[in-house]
Amino acid sequence: MSIRWLRENVSTVYKSDFPFVSGCGRFIYADKFGEWRSVPGFDENELIVSSMGYMRQKCNSAELREAFIPVQSKHTGYCSVGFKGRMFLAHRLVCSAFHGDCPTGFTCDHITKYGDLLRERMDNRASNLRWADTTTQALNKSARSATMRCDTFHARHKEWPHCTPNMFFQSKNKLLKFTGLHWNRLDFDSAKETGLINVDKWIIFCTPDDDPPLEVWKDVDATLRVSSHGRAQFKKYSKWQNKFTPLVSRGHAYAVLRNKLFHRLVFLCFGGVLQAGETVDHKNGDKSDNAFNNLRAASKSTQRLNQIRVHTSRAHVKNRVMGRKLGSEEWEKFDSCLNAQKILTPRECVKFNNSAIGRVARQGSVKQHMGWEFMFY
């Protein structure tokens, strides 16, 4: 169906809820998805947006596809749509269509704050968007309540016996990784009222203000303090902010806070002493576990023994091989080609070569070596 047909047959009489300001899109029609307008800079026969955040675009056909909500990014939370080989942010397209040109130094702001960053950036209704400068957006951010990422949690499985204590998690990421749940299955709104989330076979207790047992906090300076469990808390405008667990960020091997290694900060703050040639080591090898009892001062040679190494070179891989004399039916097993050479050379009084044994075992052009045939197993 064409834009002309939609304009003539779908919306004969309609009063817009949004004023037509300079640079805004052209009114197309209205239906259950709200008011549809064109986007400045785009052909209205190829892309239109609605006041409720829906979109319709032309994809390899003469007609516009059905209304859809653009895909949300798991990393940034913003919805984006692909158009002619390029990606465009959905909230900017909607804001341009209903609120006109973007003033210099302004960006698109989501007005409503739910306490959940991903949910906020999913709400691309025209009434929820505006052009705002950084100062206005900063004031609007302060209205956001504490997100679940900065809270602590206790969780237990429904099949656990009563004598089993609850599991404690320092952040939402560690909770989701342990339970295997997805973030969108957690009802944040009910959690704020009841204090718990009941999903699948798990009961999750939200404890944003409670510290786990035996957690000790010490001040690094006037605006930062760290805990013995590897958590941190900033002070802003004479008020302590939400407690959080610093995570290993992309491009770093360790968690970094204020351009400093967080595990070193915790170790020194709780009385750790470093001698010459020593650095801070994670006892269990987990670089995201920055609890003080998991940290120690160690030399590089000691840390090298504690590292978990994964060998990717085939020089560290031993291929077990088995062989038999030509004409025999009984196979003899060896731990490696070199092991077969060491055993067969004195027994057969013939010098075997481990490289030749490997070539035969690979079932290549060489079929036998010193009257023996080999194969890997």
CATH domain class of the largest domain:
Alpha Beta
**Global shape:** extended
Helix content: 10-25%
Contiguous low-pLDDT stretches (5 residues minimum) are: 144-150, 310-317
**β-strand number:** 24
SSE-based structural type: alpha+beta
Domains counted in the coordinates: how many? 4
Instruction: Quickly give the CATH architecture of the largest domain.
Output: Alpha-Beta Complex
Question: What does the main sheet amount to?
Answer: 4 strands, antiparallel
CA radius of gyration is 32 Å
Protein model, in words:
- With 377 residues, the protein is α+β, with helices and mostly antiparallel strands.
- The chain has ten helices and 24 strands.
- It has four domains: 3-141, Homing Intron 3 (I-Ppo) Encoded Endonuclease, Chain A (Alpha-Beta Complex); 148-207, no CATH class; 217-306, Homing Intron 3 (I-Ppo) Encoded Endonuclease, Chain A (Alpha-Beta Complex), CATH 3.90.75.20; 315-376, Orthogonal Bundle (Arc Repressor Mutant, subunit A), CATH 1.10.10.
- It has helices at 3-9, 90-99, 117-122, 134-141, 172-179, 188-194, 262-269, 300-306, 337-348, 354-361; strands at residues 27-31, 34-38, 47-50, 55-57, 71-72, 79-83, 86-89, 107-110, 129-132, 152-157, 167-169, 196-199, 202-207, 217-221, 224-227, 232-236, 239-240, 256-257, 260-261, 278-282, 295-299, 321-325, 332-334, 372-376.
- The strands form eight sheets. It has a four-stranded antiparallel sheet with strand order 1-2-3-4.
- The longest helix is centred in the C-terminal third of the chain and has 12 residues, at 337-348.
